[in-house]
C-alpha cells in the first residue's frame, strides 16, 4: 500500500507540513538548525526526503541499503546540547535517538495518509492498516526497534493524539526561524501565498497555534480556494504514467553513472 500511495505526486504538497511537525520537537529543531544549511537551501531537505522515500520504496535492494546507510552517516554527526526551551537546556540530543526517529517517521506517516485521503481518495477497508504496516517495516529498516513503533494503526493514532496534546512539542526560536524560511519555498505553482495556505491549512490546529500562524477569514479563504484547485487539478497528476517512480530512478541511475 505504501508503494501505491508513494506514486501520487500530490504527496509533495504535504512535505512542508511534515517538516513543520518534525521541528516542533525541540531536539529535531536543534539538529536541523545546527547541522544543516536548511535556512539557506530550504527546498533541499524536502527533495532529499522525497528522493530517499522513492529509492527505498521502489529501488533495488542495494540502492535501498545504500540510501539507508547514507542517511545513517548523516545522522552520525547530528548531535549536541539543547539551548531551548529553558526546561530542557543542557539536555543532549542525537539523531539516533529512537524517540526522535519515531516522531520524524510518525510525521511522514500521518502526513502521507492525510494528503492521500484528502486529494486522492479515502482509504478502503483494510488499507489504513496495510499502509501503516508498510511504514512499520520502513521504520524498522532504519533501525527503529520494533517495540518503539505502535503495534497497529489504532495505537499509532493514539500516539499522534498524545504527542499533539502533550507538552513534548514546543516551537523554539530555532523552529520558528526554520519555519519562516520554509514557508518562503514556492512548492506550489502560483508561488508562496498558495503554498503557505496549503501548509497552514493542513497543519494540526494545535501546531498552527504554537507557530502563531495567522488563520483568520482571509487565510481560510485562501486555503479553501487552493484546496479546491488541487482537488480539481489532481486528475492531471493522475495522468502521469504509473511508472513515474521507476522512470525517476532510471534517470537517477543514468545521472549518477556519468
Please characterize this protein's 3D structure:
The protein has 258 residues and is mostly helical. The chain contains 13 helices and two strands; from the N terminus they run H-H-H-H-H-E-E-H-H-H-H-H-H-H-H. It has helices at residues 2-6, 15-23, 26-35, 42-58, 61-76, 98-119, 127-141, 153-165, 173-182, 192-202, 205-210, 217-238, 244-257; strands spanning 79-81, 92-94. It has a two-stranded antiparallel ribbon with strand order 1-2. Helix 4 (42-58) runs antiparallel to helix 5 (61-76), helix 6 (98-119) packs antiparallel against helix 7 (127-141) and helix 10 crosses helix 12. It starts with a helix and ends with a helix. 28% of the residues are buried.
Topology:
Blueprint: H1 2-6, H2 15-23, H3 26-35, H4 42-58, H5 61-76, E1 79-81, E2 92-94, H6 98-119, H7 127-141, H8 153-165, H9 173-182, H10 192-202, H11 205-210, H12 217-238, H13 244-257
Amino acid at each position: 500500500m505504501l508503494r501505491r500511495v508513494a506514486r501520487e505526486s500530490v504527496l509533495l504538497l504535504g512535505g512542508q507540513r511534515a517538516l513543520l511537525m518534525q521541528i516542533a520537537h525541540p531536539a529535531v529543531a536543534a539538529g536541523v538548525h545546527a547541522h544543516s544549511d536548511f535556512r539557506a537551501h530550504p527546498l533541499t531537505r524536502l527533495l532529499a526526503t522525497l528522493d530517499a522515500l522513492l529509492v527505498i520504496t521502489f529501488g533495488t535492494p542495494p540502492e535501498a541499503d545504500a540510501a539507508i546507510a547514507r542517511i545513517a552517516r548523516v545522522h552520525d554527526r547530528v548531535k549536541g546540547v539543547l539551548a531551548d526551551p529553558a526546561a530542557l537546556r543542557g539536555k543532549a540530543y542525537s539523531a539516533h535517538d529512537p524517540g526522535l526517529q519515531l516522531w520524524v517517521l510518525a510525521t511522514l506517516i500521518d502526513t502521507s495518509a492525510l494528503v492521500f485521503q484528502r486529494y486522492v481518495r479515502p482509504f478502503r477497508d483494510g488499507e489504513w492498516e496495510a499502509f501503516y504496516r508498510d511504514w512499520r517495516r520502513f521504520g524498522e529498516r532504519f533501525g527503529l526497534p520494533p517495540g518503539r513503533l505502535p503495534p497497529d494503526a489504532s495505537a499509532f493514532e493514539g500516539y499522534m493524539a498524545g504527542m499533539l496534546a502533550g507538552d513534548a512539542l514546543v516551537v523554539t526560536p530555532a523552529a520558528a526561524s526554520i519555519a519562516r524560511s520554509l514557508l518562503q519555498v514556492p512548492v506550489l505553482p502560483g508561488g508562496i501565498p498558495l503554498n503557505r495556505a496549503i501548509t497552514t491549512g493542513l497543519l494540526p490546529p494545535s501546531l498552527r497555534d504554537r507557530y502563531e500562524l495567522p488563520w483568520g477569514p482571509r487565510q481560510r479563504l485562501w486555503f479553501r480556494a487552493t484546496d479546491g484547485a488541487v482537488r480539481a487539478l489532481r486528475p492531471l497528476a493522475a495522468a502521469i504514467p504509473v511508472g513515474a517512480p521507476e522512470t525517476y530512478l532510471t534517470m537517477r541511475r543514468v545521472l549518477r553513472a556519468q
